[in-house]
Amino acid sequence: MSKPPKLSLASIVAAAAPGQPRSSGEVVQLPTASQPSAANSRGTLKERAKQLSVYLEPPVYDQLRDIAYTERTKIHQLMLESLDLLFKARGALSIDQLTDGR
Questions:
Q1: Which pLDDT tens digit goes with each residue over 32-70?
Q2: DSSP letter string over 33-102?
Q3: pLDDT exceeds 60 at position 9
Q4: What residues contact residue 54 under an 8 Å CB cut-off, 6+ apart?
């Protein structure tokens, strides 16, 4: 039994846009998603925020997780609260003050 032919990017793109023959080396414009509405123009938090990794010792993480569970909140909210306390102690702007201009 013979092997099925290997797929190439050109064949996948050609199959995605039927009826339009493509020559080799041609740049293909694929349809893009529609623009977000005016109400959602800021995007999601994941789209507009920067990610930060924090390495915690297991007992520290466990205690943080326990506090989040006890207070029925998320670790993320507790981390934001702790950053606000740090900013306040240093005389810096709070998270609300920093994000009001958006």
A1: 666 555 445 678 988 989 999 999 999 999 999 999 999
A2: PPPPPGGGTT--HHHHSPP------HHHHHHHHHHHHHTT--HHHHHHHHHHHHHHHHTPPPHHHHHTT-
A3: yes
A4: 79
Question: Could you give the percent of the chain with pLDDT greater than 90?
Answer: 48
pLDDT computed for residue 6 by the predictor: 79
Does residue 61 lie in a domain region? yes
Residue 45 lies in a domain: no
The answer to whether the beta carbons of residues 21 and 14 sit under 8 Å apart is yes
Determine, yes or no, domain membership for 39. no
Please give the residue range of the domain that contains residue 71.
Answer: 50-102
Q: Which residue type, as a one-letter code, is found at position 21?
A: P
Instruction: Give me the number of domains the chain comprises.
Output: 1
CA separation for the pair 10, 21 (Å, rounded)? 10
Residue 23 falls within a domain, yes or no?
no
Only one residue has tokens 């293909």, namely 28
Q: Which H helix or E strand runs over 7? A: none
